[in-house]
Design brief:
Length: 600
């Protein structure tokens, strides 16, 4: 997470939050003024104890990430009533995400008096009761629901024989939590926040302010509430399509200890012992990011051949050349290299995270490219692995096959670039790639990926309408819509699902609600093939006209002339959008050298 400390820093959130108290966030929340460029989000909080200040904390934390949050906190211990009443303020508020934070002692208080059989039965009854409330929530809202696991108490009246009981108090709460976790596994709307892991991280004694506990039923200390807010931000980034895609890394004193040019390959600090261990663990964390689909890039002032030698020969160098989608090892300034990395990878500057031990380099990026998230690495390298562990900006609600392979896909993209340099014209290049395009309908296995593309794709996105899994599922089940996606591969590898179209079917015309392609497959005329498929399908059903919309944003200028260049005629233009029409009596030509398959 990042932090604002001064008025000067408010334009660029770059530091980890770790010291501001609850009163700071409550006071700051009163000063927030929405800016036009900010994304919007609505957050609701339900609890069975006092959580005053959590909503205000979240508002400030969101604001620091250029997100404007409206919040609604359900009145004290009224969570069940609000859920059951379909006319409640909770439903009127129409939140995007609902956080449910319940205290185990208050919820299961009478279990202390029960024998084991009674306790087991009561645990199941309470689970069924809360599951019923969750189901009612899901019936009445499309919001994401985050349910905190119940805290397992440290104290038991049974003392050292607590765990010898077949169904003791602690085991009851563990069972309750396991049942809720199982409930969420295949549910795209319900998420479980592991409150016990959070408590371990905080320290149990830091979780409760005993004086406030008895005075105001504040079962979580003010400091812990702030830290819960920080943890909750992991859900806000994917909700607002603010997840980062790429980590840009320095080398000397970042990926290894010491300066390579001075100490040589054998003497840099990298390995399982003493000074080298933090750097080895840091690389482990980065490799884990790569394996879940985060792109890695290098931005270093160094000798290229020396660095490649480390990657090939150093026994403990975990990150190899093929783990990096873009490598800038030269003597240019870091600002220039960072811009070039974004351009070569064809991703936005606001998708980048910059890690460098040198404070001067960090300040340069903050000043000249404020869109980039700059993480202030601590002076002590032993804290480097924790920096990666604490970052919330890589979280997603689902991890698709495309996510897991993204890093590898960008490495394959380098090979395509090398081929393009050898070929004289675009058509020859595309023919040599041997591109295969498969067009399929939305189904259970791809709905999450389709929704994800609507949330993340900016550059070639004609309307930039953002949809959640539930929306895509609703469209796919409706006779009034068709939802199609394309997955693409060539001789260098599989791009995965990289394009979608959502079309509203009217009696005499079809309206293209959404049409987008991932930046990875742009420049290959695949968009023409996809549009051609839609046109052919419309003609088969006797439709007279295909209508396309273009809604301009700061990032989708690349798609501005798409309809015009494909022989659509401009019908209506307003400040908000353009309406384009294609007469389906006309012929539409698109490249025929692609291998096209259909899994409808």
């Amino acid at each position: 997470m990042e932090k604002i400390n001064s008025s000067k820093e408010k334009e660029q959130p770059n530091k980890l939050i770790n010291e501001n108290n609850l009163s700071y966030y409550i006071n700051e929340s009163k000063k927030l003024i929405k800016k036009k460029s900010m994304k919007d989000v609505k957050l609701a909080f339900l609890s069975n104890f006092t959580i005053n200040g959590l909503a205000e904390t979240m508002k400030v934390l969101c604001f620091e990430q250029r997100i404007y949050a409206e919040t609604y906190a359900v009145p004290y211990n009224q969570y069940a009533q609000e859920i059951l009443n379909k006319s409640s303020k909770l439903y009127d508020f129409n939140s995007d995400i609902i956080f449910i934070l319940l205290d185990s002692e208050q919820l299961l208080d009478s279990m202390y008096k029960m024998d084991e059989k009674q306790r087991e039965k009561y645990t199941k009854e309470k689970f069924d009761e809360l599951r019923g409330l969750i189901n009612i929530l899901k019936e009445n809202t499309n919001a994401k629901i985050v349910f905190n696991t119940l805290l397992v108490p440290l104290y038991s009246s049974r003392g050292i024989i607590e765990n010898k009981q077949k169904f003791g108090l602690k085991k009851s709460i563990h069972r309750f939590n396991e049942m809720f976790e199982s409930l969420s596994i295949d549910d795209s709307q319900l998420f479980i926040f592991d409150f016990n892991s959070f408590c371990s991280k905080m320290g149990y004694e830091n979780l409760v302010d005993r004086k406030m506990y008895y005075l105001g039923d504040m079962r979580i200390s003010p400091m812990a509430l702030v830290n819960i807010g920080i943890e909750y931000m992991a859900y806000i980034f994917p909700l607002t399509s603010s997840t980062k895609k790429c980590v840009i890394l320095d080398l000397d004193n970042t990926l290894w200890g010491g300066i390579l040019g001075e100490e040589g390959t054998e003497n840099i600090k990298l390995g399982p012992e003493k000074d080298g261990k933090p750097f080895l663990d840091f690389q482990k964390r980065l490799l884990e990011l790569f394996e879940r689909g985060i792109i890695l890039a290098i931005n270093s002032k160094n000798n290229y051949n020396d660095v490649i030698e480390v990657m090939k020969k150093h026994k403990y160098m975990l990150l190899k050349e093929n783990n990096f989608a873009c490598i800038k090892i030269n003597w240019k300034d870091k600002v220039t290299n960072t811009r070039e990395i974004a351009k070569e990878l064809n991703i936005g500057l606001d998708s980048l995270v910059f890690l460098d031990d040198d404070k001067t380099n960090r300040e340069l990026i903050k000043k000249f490219i404020p869109e980039v998230m700059v993480v202030d690495l601590p002076e002590d390298p032993s804290l480097y692995p924790k920096v990666i562990e604490d970052l919330k900006v890589f979280n997603t609600f689902t991890i698709t096959g495309e996510d897991l392979n993204r890093g590898k896909m960008y490495v394959s993209q380098k090979k395509r670039g090398e081929l393009k340099l050898k070929v004289k014209d675009l058509e020859s290049f595309l023919k040599q790639l041997g591109i295969k395009v498969n067009i399929s309908s939305a189904k259970k296995s791809n709905i999450s990926r389709i929704a994800q593309l609507t949330q993340k794709t900016n550059q070639f996105n004609l309307t930039t309408r953002r949809y959640q899994d539930a929306d895509i599922k609703k469209f796919s089940e409706s006779k009034e819509y068709i939802v199609k996606c394309i997955d693409v591969e060539d001789k260098f590898g599989d791009y995965g699902i990289t394009g979608i179209a959502i079309v509203k079917k009217n009696k005499e015309d079809w309206l293209v609600d959404s049409f987008l392609l991932s930046c990875r497959i742009l420049g290959k005329e695949i968009e023409k093939v996809f549009l051609g498929f839609i046109i052919e399908e419309a003609k088969k059903e006797g439709i007279k006209k295909l209508i396309g919309e273009f809604i301009s944003t700061k990032k989708n200028s690349l798609a501005k002339d798409f309809y015009k260049s494909n022989k659509f005629e401009l019908g209506k233009k307003t400040n908000e959008k353009e309406i384009w029409n294609f007469d389906l009596k006309n012929k539409y030509d698109y490249p025929k050298f692609f291998i096209i398959t259909k899994d409808i």
